[in-house]
Amino acid sequence: KRPFGIAVAQLGPIQPSDSRASAVARLVEMMREAASLGARMVVFPELALTTFFPRYWMSDEDAIERYFEKSMPSAQTQILFDTSKNLGIGFYLGYAELTTDGHRFNTSILVDQTGKIVGRYRKIHLPGHADHKVGKPFQHLEKKYFEVGNEGFHVWQTMDARIGMCLCNDRRWTETWRVLALQGADIVAVGYNTPSVNIHWPEPPHLRMHSHLISLQAAAYQNTTWIAAAGKAGLEDGCHLFAGSVIVSPAGEILAQTQSEDDEVIYCKADLALADTFRQHIFNYGAHRRPEHYRLITER
Ligand code: CDT
Fold first, then answer.
1. Considering the domain 3-299, what is its CATH architecture?
2. pTM of the model as a whole
3. Is the distance from the beta carbon of residue 194 to the nearest atom of ligand 1 less than 6 Å?
4. What are the GO MF terms of this UniProt record (predicted)?
């Protein structure tokens, strides 16, 4: 057995008027709860320090910039790193990154149990649009506010596990998971913000939840990995984000799921060896994969 306590900390809504300090305080409280449950790592959502601002059309650069972090840690987020170190718990955190040379990414970091950043991921599959969709109830302007991530998909050996990262829309793409699986991911952390309303075509909210869960369950099974998925949920500034934060085993089974649309910690004592068993048998890549027949995936 390879026991590994995983916690997912779902966030309730963060309103536009909420301060960074109040968001960070909520994260710290949930980190404490996760540690008390025995978690070695806690997964926070995508853009966990601010409201989901890509819903707003903004042209003023200063208005846009206030949603971005110029450094990590920063004075306001340092307490997350200090608490991580004091409690001996690692974490995954999503936030909007502004680089020193002016590039903007939708980013997540992986921090080990000593409070040290060990990995960074910049979101690759950016959904939505870059133009102002006048008349829509809200926007989804990730293509306006962020550049496509320029560092690829990675897995880090840390905290006695191989941990990969992706962000939100990435979870719907087969390719994301296989590239992480090929690097031997034991656990993949994914934060998300998903509106319950689809502004592009009519879609019942229950189908939105269905495709979210089926993406994670199929990905975990077909790619032999634990998945820890943390959402930001509830009514943010009149726009509803669905909840459904989960921990999924490599069998594709949901072993923990949030009950609310608010701040909520779920926990699972995962046995990472379950993935090893699958990898030795049905999904033994060396024995059974046929990459010579998969070339189209990268050619188109
Ligand atoms: N944040 C994010 O990537 N959300 C998307 C919404 C898709 S609708 C434009 C998601 O895939 O959940």
1. 4-Layer Sandwich (3.60)
2. 0.98
3. yes
4. hydrolase activity, acting on carbon-nitrogen (but not peptide) bonds, in linear amides
